[in-house]
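Request:
Um, any thoughts?
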Amino acid sequence: MVLTESANFALGAGLFLRSVFKAAVTYVNENKAPRPDKLKGINLKEPLPDNLPTIIDIKRALPKHCFQPDLSKSLYYMAKDIILAAVIFAVFKAIHVTFPSPYIYWPSMVLYWAMQGTIFTALFVVGHDCGHGSFSNYPSINTLVGNITHAFLFCPYYMWKLSHRHHHKFTGNIDKDEVFYPVRESDPHAHNATMPGFGFGIGWFGYLATGYKPRACYHFNPFDKMFKGHFFQCCLSLLALGVMTYCLHLLYLAEGWGGLFCYYIVPDFIFACFIVVITFLHHSEMNIPWFVDERWDFVKGQLSTIDRNYGIVHSVIHNIGTHQMHHMFAHIPHYHLEEATAAFRKAFPDLVKICDEPILPSFVRMYLKYEKQSVVQDDVQVHYYK
């Protein structure tokens, strides 16, 4: 299992570099002359029907067992990810000690970053399941595992759980969603400069620190209004971050600044890049609506998300690309998402939204549109990227 996964990661790293090249070409071409968009996917040019099923109707179309978490299966995926992360570290550390030549060290280090960053993302998705209660039926176990997996990635578990719950509650709502929403032109933050690509991983840690303006949220502050009534749980997550800080100090003592940077900080940054890309792309696409609060409802918001496939790492990062059903029913465990999605697509083919474009070129394309079109008029009712 471990060897097979590692071989897949190695191949995935090569495909990742190929995607980076294609994304760079897309960026250059878009800035020379915007190309006519030929959307690759399903129902991306068709609006949602006026008469939508209720959440009960959709739930009835899905197998009942998809809503039941299996603790042993969840623990298996967590253990597998932890073992893979440890094996990847041990193997590449041995390579670097045995073959110190820069001609081997640096190419293998780039491969390590791609593989370990992917596994870090998988670990985050395990903790993400904990936040939704889909890891197990035991809140105390969810809290323990969530704090362990998220603290390892230097994310305050309970605070992010609460802000992410807010995002799920108001998906696609211009006035209440949590991140990457359109901003009204009269807002003081409307014309703030944005780092290219949201700074990729920098954008993730910036979001944790201050939130997404104009609706700020300080994830490292247990007194933030978003976390009212959860002070003790937030402090436990901060304590977990303190333990992780001490572990990183031990890594520094053993490997120095260079080892800390190469073996932890860069993979954590790669994971953060994944999160920015995932969050943005599943809620941003041409002809996908953003509604003002008065025009929004829960079903419209959740169905206005997009499914995307992450290729060879899709299953490695636990099928998070099956986003429509994840958003409609956040308590579905990741290992049931594909089955639930297949049932949904069969029952409601006209509601399916799938983009088949490769991930990084798609991110570049949509970021350039976001950069030009995310500031909307004050009286807008529904906003579409064109």
